[in-house]
Amino acid sequence: MKEFFSIDGKVYAVLNVMLELLELNLLFMLGCLPVLTIGTSVASLYEVVFQIRAEGTVRVFDRFRRAYRENLRRGTALWAIVAGAFGAMLLLYWLMSNATQGNIVVLIPVCVLIAVMMLAAMLIFPIAGRYDMTVPAILRAALSLSLQHVLFTALAFMLMLVIIVVIPLFAPRLWFLWIFFAFSVTAYLQSWLFMRVFDMQAKAQ
Fold first, then answer.
1. Is the pTM of this model over 0.85?
2. Which residues, including other chains, have CB under 8 Å from residue 89's CB and lie 6 or more apart?
């Protein structure tokens, strides 16, 4: 029992990770306050999450600050591309829907394209947080990996949807926990899926 509650025990390890995720979540939200830097904050969030998984105990504030500084230009560019692409796709859907009076045959290809973009977007910032790559290389890798590993990417999307959207809407009593843990816990759980994808890709090469 003493070993269970010791510094090397499971309880201490779980509490330590929870504290790190709490700090990381607050830093992430602060980093998102300038809307233009949301991409930078997301990439930094994943970078620190991967480090927590690999090392266990890390200096979250120092790691996030360094990651934020290093990802600033690249993360901002990626966020602008992602936001612009989704905006263009939604506009295209609206225009096609009005022009064809909601013809499903015409709208299906647009919906498929939007779905592919959503899957690719799931991997853009984890890749940016994991690897030192250029913006075009990250976009190509995200699209390729999302299509090769649709199941893992879709699971990561569903996980994000449940924690970020469903819980605050249908379980409002959990708002307090959501504010302090939602984004970092989502990234932490997703990181297992993303690491599986990265590991499988590394073995395939």
1. yes
2. 110, 113, 114, 117
